[in-house]
Amino acid sequence: MRNIHCIVLLGLIAMGCSSPNATNKNYSTQSLRSASRTVEAKIVSKRAVTVAGNSDIGGLAGTALGATAGSAIGGGGRANLAGAIVGAVAGGLAGSAIEKNVTEQNAFEYIVKLNNGELLTIIQSDAEFMLDEPVFVVLGDKPVLVKRAR
Q1: pTM
Q2: Are 20 and 64 a contacting pair, CB within 8 Å?
Q3: If we measure between CA atoms, which residue out of 110, 107, 108 comes closest to residue 133?
Q4: What is the pLDDT of residues 78-97, one digit of tens each?
Q5: Are 24 and 127 in contact (CB under 8 A)?
Q6: Topology of domain 35-52+104-150, per CATH?
Q7: Cα(74)–Cα(64) distance, rounded to whole angstroms?
Q8: Exposed, middle or buried by CB within 10 Å (0-12, 13-18, 19+), for 48?
Q9: Concatenated DSSP letters of 5-61
């Protein structure tokens, strides 16, 4: 039974540690047959940033897996409890570190000025834009920048 718990927890860790999607080239199936408002803008600020996952699933799954594994250590109730506590702490720290390392990526924070003067801040990792470059901003839940001809 413990093997099944471990397999389920490892699956949860894998699902929770998937890389964040901060690109303008990948769309979900919900995007099919949908329309987004697109506006013209110009890049007015750019800086390098680091994006990391913070779902806490890695830490939670590591805690559960560590407690399960740690409770198997020892021959009695107190030894099993001590093992579970130590295992939970160690597993939680390891799970959080794994999630951070798996999901962390470099990206850019762009501030764009729309033609109406409004400013928007967009974090994006896949395409690099230059200051004063004209772009399209595809608005929606997760706005993206798209290159446009000068």
Answers
A1: 0.55
A2: no
A3: 110
A4: 767 777 777 777 777 777 66
A5: yes
A6: OB fold (Dihydrolipoamide Acetyltransferase, E2P) (2.40.50)
A7: 18
A8: exposed
A9: HHHHHHHHHHHHTPPP---SS---GGGTT----EEEEEEEEEEEEEE----SHHHHH
